Amino acid sequence: MKIDIHTHIMPPSMPNWVKKFGYGDFIHVEHRNCRACMMKGDKLFREVEENCYEEKVRLKDMEATGVQLQVLSTIPVLFNYWAKATDGYETSRFFNDHIADVVAREPKSFIGLGTVPMQDIELAIREMERCVHELKMPGLELGSNINGKNLSDPDFYPFYERAEALGCALFIHPWEMMGEQQMQRYWLPWLVGMPAETSRAICSMIFGGVLEKFPGLRVAFAHGGGSFPSTIGRIKHGFDVRPDLVAIDNPVSPEQYIGRFWIDSLVHDPRAMQFILEVMGEDFICLGSDYPFPLGEHIPGKLIEEMSLSGELKDKLFSGNALRWLGRSDTV
C-alpha cells in the first residue's frame, strides 16, 4: 500500500472574498476557456490543472501510479494568515469543509488535514477542535512561519498544548520563504528558499523547546526535511561551540530530536534518499509527492521502488510510518 502524505487540493470554486471583505489578496477561482485560473483580486496568480480540484481526475492518477491513499491538505497560498482573524477563520472553515466532503465521498482513497487561522490562537484552537471532533480529521497543515513569526514563538504554546491533548498530527509546509523578494528569478524561492524555510521550521521547534515541552506532538515536515538533514552536523556544531547564542531556550542537543519527528520522502535523488535514511532513520520517513505540482514526484514512490531496499523497509516508507504519524492503526 502507498499512502502519500503530501498532496494538495483546492475547491473547484470559492467565494470572491476580496469583494466580500473589501481588502487583501484572497484567492478565488475563475474558469476561463477550459482553464482554471487562481486569481488574486483581478490578477492571475496561477493556472492549475483539473487534478488540483477535480477528485475524479485525481483518483485516475492515483490508480495509474499505484497510490491507494492520499492525505489531502490545502495549497499554502490559501492559509490566509495575513487576513483579519475572523476572515481567516471563515476561509479556513470553507477549505476544511471542502476537504471533509471529498473524504466523505471517497473515504477509502482520501484522508484530510485541516487548516486553521494561526494569526489568532483562540480561533485556531476552536477550528482545530472542530476538525478533529466534527470533521474527523487526524491532523492539520501549518505554514513554516506565521506572518514572519517562527514556530517556536511562545504565543503558539497553547495551540501546541491543545494539539498534543487532541492527538492532532501536524504537517509543516514551507511558505513565504526567507529572502523571497531578493531572489525572484530562476524559481529560486522554490529551489533554494523552500529547503531553507523547512530547516528554519525544524530548528525553531527544536531550539525553542517546542518538541521538549510537548513531547506527544506528532509533527512531519515536507520536502525531505529541507536542508536540515544535510546540515545537522553544522547545526549541532553551532549548538556545541556557541551555546550562548543557540542553547538559550533549550539545553538539549539538536541531534537528540532525530527520531522525534517525521519527514516526507520528496528528495528527487537516490543518494539524498539513502542519506536521509541514514541520518533521520527508516522509521521516520513517509512517502510524500507534492501532488499535483511540477516540483513533486510525478510517480509517487518511484524513487524508493527503484532503490535496493528491503520489502520491509519499503512497506515502512510507503505506509507504516505514515500510519504512526497519523495516529492510525489502519486506513479506515
How does the SSE layout of this entry go?
Layout: E1 3-9, H1 17-21, E2 27-32, E3 35-40, E4 43-48, H2 55-65, E5 69-74, H3 85-105, E6 110-114, H4 121-133, E7 139-143, E8 145-146, E9 149-150, H5 157-166, E10 169-173, H6 188-207, H7 210-213, E11 219-221, H8 228-241, H9 243-246, E12 262-264, H10 270-280, E13 285-286, H11 302-305, H12 311-326
Parallel strand pairs: 1-5, 5-6, 6-7, 7-10, 10-11, 11-12, 12-13
Antiparallel strand pairs: 2-3, 3-4, 8-9
Helix pairs in contact: 3-4, 4-5
Quick synopsis:
The protein is α/β, with parallel strands linked by helices and 332 residues long. The protein has helices at residues 17-21, 55-65, 85-105, 121-133, 157-166, 188-207, 210-213, 228-241, 243-246, 270-280, 302-305, 311-326; strands at residues 3-9, 27-32, 35-40, 43-48, 69-74, 110-114, 139-143, 145-146, 149-150, 169-173, 219-221, 262-264, 285-286.
Considering the chains and any ligands shown, give keywords for the structure.
TIM Barrel; 13 strands; alpha/beta; 332 residues; eight-stranded parallel β-sheet; 12 helices
